[in-house]
């Protein structure tokens, strides 16, 4: 997933999103440098030590004691994040073969490739919690773990590739930047890496839309249509409103999550309004207006019933996305088996050669 | 083929069509790590294609850039070899195809790096390192598939049987070209034979040597590949992207 | 698709490898993450593709994760405290005279 720190205007407050990522990394180093009183003395209460580490804004590391619920929450969240990266390759991958210029084709291919890489970083982070990637992939393929609902919408035109870069990756990074400060070390480090790698993507979705919005009438219409279809699903990416969000309070106490769904959604809307103006595109919300009192935009909430339907499997592309992933996994089984068999044969040969050497000696 | 334009165009088309096929693997690879590797190789081929097509456009001097050459020619005007346009098939077909292609491109780009045309020499110097990686990757996989399980061996042998006849076209003599492809065969054989031997694969015995790509006479597959690749660009004549 | 109902195939689970990258000459290898690969050769290739897509490294190590023995946090004091009193190992122990650079 990618950032939307593309408009120079956005760089001003707080140094932009990439600046926030760097600040998070600096904070991580700084916290690591603050000496702690050794480690839990034998016989001391590990839960109290865990709480101390969290309170001190230090990182929990893989072999530390942690509450089971903390571990379970992290495994679920990191895995679903990883699944989202992997499934998220499909809607954009859909346009690699038809990208309208060789330059766009190269950028899109590199972007989809990075999503695979980010998925792997995240699976690796999840594995430090004692689950295997194979188990997590099974949970995805069996439909027992979810991925971001946004990827169940289709990419119908080239402008959708731009809209995904601008809105979907934009919403994702608003979510992800705070995760760079997550209390679990491997997750925080993976997120820092992911967010930093996105520097080359940050502008690409916006640039696609900007070019279209300043192109032929047909291209302009394509851009507006994409914004019309992706706006509300992007707002829904932040999850249900705070009152209905079941996991939020505990996750915030554990410093896995740093801001509420509604806070992040508001932040996203406030960023997008001016960016849409520069594009010359109309955000499809007649009630969108600046609220001087709140110093934020009032806006229409997405249809959360639709979000729930899509999460429960009734979005336009849920079945297609899962079938595609299952087929790729099943079609690749013989290749993975061959590589395993080859490795075993070769290990056997090496052992046999060692034996011969010993005998000869 | 004659002249540097045709030669450069043919190499550019090889790389472009190879990139288009490899790009089709995105989201479909047998393992997530391999998705990344295949995308890397596709990006290398695409990068080489852009350099070669841009230069071909300059040599032609008719104002065509890389996109005009990629998107606005029909299949009869493409000069790529048949090997790269054949459908991806299974992973064995893709890896054997990549082995044959990169075992040709490594000596080709190496020779190009020493040719008098400075632009071609620079492209060759850059691309030969990338091709060496493609060769390494495909050789590694052909060995694993050939000497893996019974099923993978069967698939790898079938892939070799299917693709082997198409490699002859790569070495058709063209003494006037900046690099005569006929001179590259020894380098190809020296690389491919040991890989096939280690992979326990048998070179098929057949006298069939399909060709014609360099003259714009292709398989039926190319027109479909181009239809998909060019559809959006052609739907909006003159538009910027 | 009927995969869900089919019996699971032999799982071709490939082992986990830890990856260490030397970012630049003069620096030591640093742990960057992990990946899966059936053997060392593929692990090295995969590590190149995954962790050095942006020229982040000049040298890569891959180590089977199973070959690493890790200390427990509980043992931390026993393991690491002996070094804590050897402050002469830390460069800040030494006073650097003013005007000396590149030390």
Q: What are the main properties of this structure?
A:
heterotrimer, A: 361 residues, mainly alpha, two-stranded antiparallel ribbon, 15 helices, 64% helix, globular, C: 103 residues, alpha+beta, Ubiquitin-like (UB roll), 3-stranded antiparallel sheet, 2 helices, 3 strands, disordered N terminus, PaaB_sf (chain C), PaaB (chain C), 1,2-phenylacetyl-CoA epoxidase subunit B (chain C)
Write structural notes for this entry.
The complex is a heterotrimer of chains A (361), B (241) and C (103). Chain A is an all-alpha fold and 361 residues long. Chain A has 15 helices and 2 strands. Chain A has a two-stranded antiparallel sheet with strand order 1-2. The relative contact order of chain A is 0.12. Residues 1-14 of chain A have low confidence and may be disordered. Chain B is mostly helical. Chain B has a single domain, classed as Up-down Bundle (Ferritin). Chain B is 64% helix and 0% strand. Chain B is built from 9 helices and no strands. The longest helix of chain B has 29 residues, at 32-60. Chain B is globular and about 55 Å long. The model of chain B has no long low-confidence stretch (mean pLDDT 97). Chain C is an alpha+beta fold. Chain C has a domain at 16-70: Phenylacetic acid degradation B (Ubiquitin-like (UB roll), Roll). Chain C is 20% helix and 19% strand. The longest helix of chain C is centred in the middle third of the chain and has 12 residues, at 40-51.
